[in-house]
Write a structure and sequence with these properties.
Elements: H1 3-31, H2 35-46, H3 54-61, H4 68-94, H5 99-123, H6 132-158, H7 167-173
């Protein structure tokens, strides 16, 4: 089996498995929590998107064949989203203020970045040369990001009238 086929199969199976986990377990659990806690939980998945910076190492020593522009598109969009996710988590922890706007910005920018990186990766044939951590990120972590990005939008839209409270206070009151 070639690398492209293996990566596509792994990515699709990961997407299906994580969607099942999200629908059967994560969504019901989040619906029982205050919106602040639900959003914070989902944002944590995006807080580690800076792992995309490994793409520079993969290109330099790991055989990943990519242009400088493609590397920068993939790495810096994820880095910006990770920073926004951390800022959003901190804002949710402090109280409502600008937290909802920050979460929306994180969701929109993060999803746009996922789409942009997907297009860049496909057009640059990166999936054909991804190996080691790059392969793992593409096959496992990226599907998690797509699922949780969708869930952030779902929480923001479905619970748009729900109040945001300080996550620090909310977390101490929920079992």
């Amino acid at each position: 089996m070639d690398l492209l086929t293996a990566n596509l199969i792994a990515s699709i199976l990961s997407l299906v498995a994580f969607a099942m986990i999200a629908v059967w377990y994560l969504a019901p659990a989040l619906n029982r929590k205050p919106l602040t806690v639900a959003l914070t939980t989902l944002l944590w998945f995006h807080a580690f998107r800076y792992v995309a910076l490994q793409i520079f190492s993969a290109a330099a020593v790991g055989g990943l064949n990519a242009t400088s522009g493609t590397l920068q598109t993939i790495a810096f969009g994820d880095l910006i989203t990770a920073v926004l996710a951390l800022i959003s988590i901190a804002a949710l922890r402090r109280g409502p203020g600008v937290a909802r706007v920050l979460v929306w910005a994180t969701a929109i920018i993060g999803t746009a970045d996922l789409a942009s990186a997907t297009v860049a990766g496909i057009s640059g044939h990166l999936i054909d040369t991804a190996s080691n951590w790059s392969w793992f990120i593409l096959a496992v972590y990226v599907p998690i990001l797509w699922i949780t990005a969708g869930m952030i939008f779902w929480q923001l839209l479905a619970r748009r009238n729900a109040p945001l409270t300080s996550a620090a206070v909310t977390a101490s009151k929920t079992p």
